[in-house]
Amino acid sequence: xxxxxxxxxxxxxxxxxxxxxxxxxxxxxxxxxxxxxxxxxxxxxxxxxxxxxxxxxxxxxxxxxxxxxxxxxxxxxxxxxxxxxxxxxxxxxxxxxxxxxxxxxxxxxxxxxxxxxxxxxxxxxxxxxxxxxxxxxxxxxxxxxxxxxxxxxxxxxxxxxxxxxxxxxxxxxxxxxxxxxxxxxxxxxxxxxxxxxxxxxxxxxxxxxxxxxxxxxxxxxxxxxxxxxxxxxxxxxxxxxxxxxxxxxxxxxxxxxxxxxxxxxxxxxxxxxxxxxxxxxxx
Length: 283
Prior knowledge:
Number of domains: 2
Subcellular location: Peroxisome
Keywords: Acetylation, Fatty acid metabolism, Isomerase, Lipid metabolism, Peroxisome, Virulence
Number of helices: 11
Largest sheet: 6 strands, mixed
Strand order of the largest sheet: 1-2-3-5-7-10
CATH architecture of the largest domain: Alpha-Beta Complex
Distance between the termini: 15 Å
Number of strands: 10
CATH topology of the largest domain: 2-enoyl-CoA Hydratase, Chain A, domain 1
Order of helices and strands: EEHEEHHEEHEEHHEHEHHHH
InterPro entries: ClpP/crotonase-like_dom_sf, Ech1-like, Enoyl-CoA_hydra/iso, Enoyl-CoA_hydra_C
Pathway: Mycotoxin biosynthesis; Lipid metabolism; fatty acid beta-oxidation
Shape: globular
Protein name: ClpP/crotonase
C-alpha cells in the first residue's frame, strides 16, 4: 500500500483505498470546494508526484462532501487577485497583459497536470460540477458521475470565455459540436443523464457513495494490469487524439519498439495459459 506522506497538502485529502489506487479529494466543502490559487498549485504538485510514484497505478479524483465536486473558481477571492482584480492607475496595458498571460498559462498548466500524469485518472463528478469542474474532468482519463450531478460551463455568466481548457477539450470529448456551442454560450445547467448521452461521462451511479465504490473497483481492475501496458495505452491514446491515424501508428511503433521488450508480456501470456492471476513489478 502506498504512503500519503507528501500528498496531504492544503485543501486536499488523500487516501489509498486499494493497492496501487490513490484517491484525491478536493477538500474545501464549506465553500463548495471552490478553488483559490493555493488549490490549483497544490493540485499540480499532487498529480506531478502521482505521475512518478511507483506505488500508484491509478488515481481517483472527487470532491469532499456531498454538495459539490467543485463550483469552480472562488470568484470573490479571484476578484481581488491579478486576473479579475482592477488595474492599477496608469498601469501599462501591454505590461498588464503580459502578466495576465503568464498567470493564465500557469493556471492552464496546473490543470493540464491531470492530463500529463502518466497514470490513468478517474474523475467522479457529483453534486455541483461547475466551471473549473469541467476543465479538470476533461483533462482526466475517465469521467464518471453520480445521478445528482449538475453540470455547467459557467464562465460566460461571469463575463469571460472559459480559458483553462474546456473550450479546447470539450469538442473532442463529446459527439456534437452544436451541443458544445450551446452549453458554453448559454451557461445552462444540465444533468447527469444528458452528460452520459453526449459522452461527457461514461458511467452513472445512483449517488456519490456508490460512485466512489465503482471508481475504486475500476481503478483496482486497471491497477492489476501491467503498468507498462497501462502507461503505454494511456500515452498513445492521448497522443493520437489530436493527430491523424498515420501519425498515431508511427508513434505507437516507436513507443512499442522499447516497451514490447518488457517481461510483462511473457508474464501475462503465461498467466493466461496457466489460468492464474498475473503479478507485475512496479514501474
